[in-house]
Write a structure and sequence with these properties.
Elements lengths: L3 H5 L3 H11 L2 E8 L3 H7 L7 H7 L4 E7 L3 H9 L12 H5 L14 H11 L4
This protein binds uridine-5'-diphosphate and magnesium ion.
Length: 125
């Protein structure tokens, strides 16, 4: 998911391009501003952080489903560390962000998590 700060900064194309160039396949995409209810479900164990909820709800996001061999592991490597100060140059967070509270991209951390997150973010409403 491309977070609100990346949308606002005009990084949507750059981020999508990296996954496309790597060879992954985009199979679903949604552009909308998530409700607090959705964010609380997504960040269940972290939803007590008001700053995180405010940040993630501050504008539209781009939620995507990417498909390909080892997509979760490779996707996490392409994103870089949670704290951009630790994210290597060449990673998305390493190249375009500075601090954890504005780290521009979310990625599922396991296939099981991805399945849950896809069901949540792409639920029919
Ligand atoms: N986060 C934060 N402060 C912290 C830890 C996490 O603001 O000290 C936010 C940050 O946006 C991060 C998200 O919470 O991306 C989820 O945290 P997680 O540890 O799952 O990192 P990620 O999987 O995004 O690398
Ligand atoms: Mg995580």
């Amino acid at each position: 998911m491309i977070k609100p700060d990346a949308v606002q900064r005009g990084l949507v194309g750059e981020i999508i391009k990296r996954f496309e160039m790597k060879g992954f396949k985009l199979i679903a995409m949604k552009f909308f501003r998530p409700t607090q209810e959705l964010l609380q479900q997504h960040y269940a164990e972290r939803s007590f952080f008001p700053a995180l909820m405010e940040y993630m709800g501050s504008g539209p996001v781009v939620s995507m489903v990417w498909e390909g061999l080892n997509i979760v592991r490779s996707g996490r490597q392409m994103m870089g560390a949670t704290n951009p100060a630790n994210a290597l140059p060449g990673t998305i967070r390493g190249d375009f962000s500075i601090q954890t509270g504005r780290n521009i991209i979310h990625g599922s951390d396991a296939v099981e998590t991805a399945n849950k997150e896809i069901a949540l973010w792409f639920a029919e409403t």
